[in-house]
Amino acid sequence: MRNALGLMLASVVTAVAITAVWFWMASARVEIAAAPAALGAPLADRLAAAAPANPAIAKPATARDEVEVTGAIAAKAAVSVPPKSACANPDALGVSRVVEIDTTGGPGFGFEHFKQFDFLTDKEVVLTFDDGPWPYNTPAVLKALDDECTKAVFFPIGKHTTYHPEILRQVAAAGQTIGSHTWSHANLNSKKLTEEQVRDEIEKGFSAVKLALGVAPSPFFRFPELQHNPAAVAYLGTRNVAIFSCDLDSFDFRAKDAAQIINTVMTKLDKQGKGIILMHDFQRHTAEALPTLLRRLKAGGYKVVQMKAKTTLQTLPEVDEALIKDKVPTASTRPLGSVVQTVSE
Ligand SMILES: [Zn+2]
After folding, report:
1. What is residue 65's predicted lDDT score, i.e. its pLDDT?
2. Which domains does the chain have, with CATH numbers?
3. How far is the CA of 182 from the centre of ligand 1 (A)?
4. What's the pLDDT tens digit per position in 157-181?
5. Which protein residues have their CB within 5 A of the ion that is ligand 1?
6. What is the pTM of this model?
7. How far apart (Å, rounded) are the C-alpha atoms in residues 195 and 192?
8. Ligand 1: centre distance to CA 251 (Å)
9. How far is ligand 1, taken at its centre, from the CA of residue 213, in Å?
């Protein structure tokens, strides 16, 4: 009896000791995981744990090396980004670098119009998509990006966003960057618009994105038809919104098929060597072209840079409220049962 008790006691002491050692080791791992510099280490652990039977998958070095992050805050964000092991495609195009943009004062990007910030190095590209969200085409673009584990910047139209908020939410859920492209795709350089109408187009576009997502968008903006109205450019500066032109226009909206888009982009890229590429997730041919285009980028040695904003945009509360009212045309708060009753079935 005494022996049995002694044995039980010894077992309990051993169990406690094992748990304490395990806990200490687990804490140490969490600390390593929190340090961006050691991103490769826990990732290797996870890879090894997930695929012990396949040592070829558990290569820790490339996972970290392929994602270079600029800026301290971006480094934190990179830790929360799904690890490379989440990518099912070992030959994916991926994201080679994440850049964080401080949008204070409204910097402009895209050498077709703004030549101040030459941040891309040779063979680096930024993928951008305008005019969505749209059924079939936007989800197809998203799938192509997902299949290659790569990221882009989306500039949705406010009205389209109110038609298909669930599609925009898919874009956000995929970790893509989302800015805005006005409320109704009006040419903001048109003499027909007053300054107030121009501002309304800008603000309502951003508020529509916020309404769809439930969170504020990135302060990234692209003018419809790349028509940069000088007064609006100045206004966006006061709102600390970055303005996007492009380095390379795919002219996908007038392409006769997917092949033409691929050819235009690759020909221009091979000549220019790098750049922000303008495309449209609204366009069917673009959705069709994307899987092959992304493969061609990979084969050509091009690397994708993801652009993120340092802060989100503070939308104007009065514009948010007006938009919500527009979507709810009556002020009735009566419950459904008092308004609609089944009287025969
Ligand atoms: Zn557009």
Report:
1. 37
2. 2-66 (no CATH), 97-327 (3.20.20.370)
3. 9
4. 999 999 999 999 999 999 999 999 9
5. 130-131, 224
6. 0.72
7. 10
8. 11
9. 20
